[in-house]
Structures
1.
Amino acid sequence: MEIDDLILDRIRFENPWWHRQSIDQDYEHLPRRLFFEAFLERIVNKAVRRAVVLMGPRRVGKTVMMYHAISALLKGSTDTRRIGFINVENPVFSQLSLDQIFAAIRQSSGVEDAEGWYIFLDEIQYLKDWEIQLKNLVDNYRESRFVASGSAAAILRMKSLESGAGRFTDFRLPALNFNEYLNFLGQENLIRENHNPLDQDYTHDSTDIRLLNWSFIDYLNFGGFPEILFANQAAPNSSLYIRSDIIDKVLLRDLPGLYGIENVQELYRLFSVLAYKTGSEVSYQSLSESSGINKKTLQMYISYLEASFMIRIMRRVDDTAKSFKRNDYMKIYLANPSVRTAMFAPIEPTDDGFGSLVETGIVAQLGQDEVDQPYYARWSKGRFQGEVDQVRLNRMNFAPESALEIKWSNRYVEKPEELQSLLLFCKQNGLQEATVTSIDKHTSVIYKDIKLHFTPASLYCYIVGHQQLKGLNMR
């Protein structure tokens, strides 16, 4: 195969470590995501012969994390000329297959041998039939490792599941969680880990709950994207950046381009409603009636938005944690709470909608393991209507294991009897304890034989994100 000199020159330009043994300092100096170690382990683990597919929303640092992985390989024992990086989105590669790209990389580096390579393919969704081609690379070059990334997570995930069974390891990189946010700002000293083995109620505490709450409020409004944090952009500019460079590109370019959506304004209008009502219960019927979009199209839009990491859906159970036969109801959350601010305006802790944003922020910390997702409970019995914000079920028998009520209020510490739905759910399902978030109260109260653990919402948000990272790094 003859490779054009323009292509070879471009490849050499994208791989500067072939002649200087390091990545660009602009990337090297950026802080590493706390997801990085788990990502790198999946790349270097040769016991599992699979390509790693890094997927996630726009502007969360996927490309930077690939460069950080390259830097780690360069500092190890890997031959620097056997590490190749390509941005597949670049037009000069548009007519090449992945096999041709790999051959061109080898030709450019001067190492024709196809063994022992680490190949990084950025924005791979722009290549037609990428999933079939990547699978073939894994099968044909068994001694080399392939890492692909993409922002159009919907198409990546679907194609990965369809064609990459046993060949791909999906790695999802979300927006910044609150743990990472504090880490990047150098504010982890606001959290104190509890090492007292006799006190099992509290794994963490805050050294200054007032400052932690201010950081939490900023995180909910502006803190989801590392680029904003590193650039130290002012709040109005960050909102404009999120709206123009993330929201608009996904809704007006990525999804229409991938799925042939013609009425982009209809899609944008639907997302605006979901963003404004983040954390609210909806049904396809009610959304269809309020938006004028037929149910079939509506279901399609929501599935695209969910797969693109723009929204998260929580399913409903009743007071006995049983699913409904016809479960048309769900709660829809923004996958990143700061998107609401970008679309509308910053929200203050005294505003009516702040409680929903707190709930959205806590949901955003959860991992993507589909079998470990919480539910919410809502039921009607006579005149009593009950609801519990989060319920976790046992993986084996689907019995309730825990219950959580998310509040931005301290009143329930003194008036636990007002938590009627939570107390009833616990009694109905044999739960002896539950968690309730507060503004700044951190204590436990026993009411009618049920132990209620009150934890500041900011601290609880940190704990959930911390546990997700800890679990990911242990896999």
2.
Amino acid sequence: MRGVINEPSAAGVEYAHHHLGASGATAREYVVVYDLGGGTFDASVISMAERRHEVVASEGIAQLGGDDFDNLLLELALERAGLNDLPQDARAELLQECREKKEELHPNTRKIVIDVGRAVKGAGEVIVSTADFYERSRPLVAQTIEAMDRAMERSPTGAELDWRSVAAVYMVGGSSDLPIVARTLRERYGRQVRKSPTARAPAIGLAIGGSADEGYTLRERFTRHFGVWREAAEGREITFDVIFGKDTPLPEGPGEKLTAARRYRAGHNVGHFRYLECGRVEHQGHPVGDMTFWDEIYFPLAPDLQHEQETLAVFPVERTPESEQIIEELYSCDRAGIIEVEILNRTANYRRGYSLRVGTQKSER
């Protein structure tokens, strides 16, 4: 949803290219991509038939990745050293020491020697057993597996996919190198677990998928719900409105677009639109779980403000319960995941268009 194939999907292309031969899958198969990066986790279930790939379902944890394992090792090092509060710069230096030692781990490592003196003068070294580190890490790994299982449970038929049709659980992402990750996955999924031979699997997959000569096609889906906070009950309440739901397929062909529209009577003089994506929506309609915030935009609902631009964000907001202004929002999403919105005042006949981005200032078009 940032204008490119997402990384787990791209890794699926790389897997098919290197493991299924020149012709790809001869019958429909699935690969489950397990992508544990530095700050996030993503999983995608990808259907493969010859060179046509389709993302069946995706799950993600926006705030779980290698950084969390670094912090666990830091906690253990501080416990062993008997240290509590550290100045911020010393803590950052010791965290870097823990990150480097974590990245050096291999399956036969039995102890981790942390140089606390690197951050605290005269503190010397402490030893953390890998068994203790891995035991403390298991809940994080369990969260990633739970997310991957949720993706597996959401097949097009509504039934859990038969694991006999899964070609592999394919591990990518730099943090997947942590031995406890591979060990835990193999305990659960056995020989179906495969590790990408390169840390650049998504980049390679992007290159392969983007090459017309290779002949791959990949149909993406929304990995989360995308929506906007909106007014309800004539402006007395705020609720979350899903615009494009999780697992909605993106368009396939050039020029094709998904569309959605919202139409209502204005309840205020200024519209404040706060966009976000989330993993789940509770029964009352509120976003829950991991959330990623997108643009916030302001639109003049009242005709006398239609020529205002930068001042709308600080303009006094007033309720207009008797307003006759009919507002319409028209959304579109192309096959690259680029989302645009055009907001119109149908009554006074003016409009503005925006290209929406993650965590940026609005891009008006």
3.
Amino acid sequence: MKRFAVIGAGAGGLCAAKHLLGANVDVTIFEAGSRVGGLWVYNNDSGMSPAYKSLHINSEAKVSTFADFPFHEDVSLYPDHEEMSRYFEAYAQHFDLARRIRFKSRIRSIAHAGVQFSVTVEGGAPETFDGVVVATGHQSKPRHPPQVEGFSGDYTHAHSYRTPGQFEGQRVLVIGPGNSGVDIAADICTATKHTVLSARSPVLIMPRMMFGAPVSRTLMRLEKPWLPLGLRLWIRKTLTRVSHGRMEQWGFQTPTGRTHPISHPTLISHIVWGRIAVKPGIARVAGKDITFTDGSTQAFDSIIAATGYTTELPFLSAALNPISPDHSRVDLYHRVVHPACPGLFFVGFFDVTGGSNVRMMDDQSEYVAAIAQGAVKVPASAAMQASIATEKAWAAAQFPDTPRYGLELDPRRYRKVLADAYAHNRVVRVPPVPVVASVAGLARSAT
């Protein structure tokens, strides 16, 4: 029996372990904190979770689970971080993963010699494994915006934001109109004296609900796979305009190409009510005075930078580290396999363009287990490198050339890539059998 180390007991690590066990691979899970759930654990003692008090998942519950472990029927339509962390605890309990987790075990180094890996925990001795799955996530090392250098007020990255209390009565600038940025701006605006959201890049703020249902359901009905990309983008812009009007009337710029989907249930309302103002990018900073690219200047007491993260894996040597020099991209075959070290796998290093990160991690973990089991063979290193280059070229033609989009992934295209890999290896996939609701209901009560 092969032995694998899985690094991280969040969504990616748990489902990787579950699939590996199903492939008759022995698994040890190393977790830096003292709980399962990763980024969904509020105030996680691993220090790696960006969860804030009001955090809810952006995709609806029924598509935000592992394929064989649905939420209980009475879970929220858009679960919050407590419901998500309880869900992962229940998942670990049901699939007997908890006893395989070594908590408070932060990885110091992973080395590769021959056909095996040496894994060393801080303060521990090296252990040998046949394979390693890295599932530590990519939202723990904040990317700080250089344009705020010289600001004399209080500065916070979104990774450290928890509640609006500390900003009571302040003038606050939130930088970045991504999902975290719009969430935080809407969260603090009823407590602050004035809230401004800085949006340097074009963005489409879609409604969360439409026609009494999540807008994603409407998009699924309208955005057929055979439709040209331009027509699919037109559908999104049209639906948004029906609900919110033009982005320009609220201070944003409507994107002309493909961008990461953003949705929020109340942001536009807060702008209408005057609680949030929208400004373009920052031109210069002088003390507490910030001048924007439209020429206007305002004074702020605090800045919250929702400017994303850099991807770092400090426990990997340069030879094993697949991260690009600018820390925005991972050079992996099918986003999973290290091309120079096929026994080293990665799960969860992506940003999904629509759909659920959790479900995509399930797909990746199934693929890892198929390779570990020998059912799927990966090609030689040169062929994997060529595939990576092709993927990079495709992404460059699809998404803006910024670090924000270095990990972007199209779920439909990606699932077809994996399906082709199974077909090439003549693997017949068996559809997962969902756990009955009464069992999945453990997510409601697990602690």
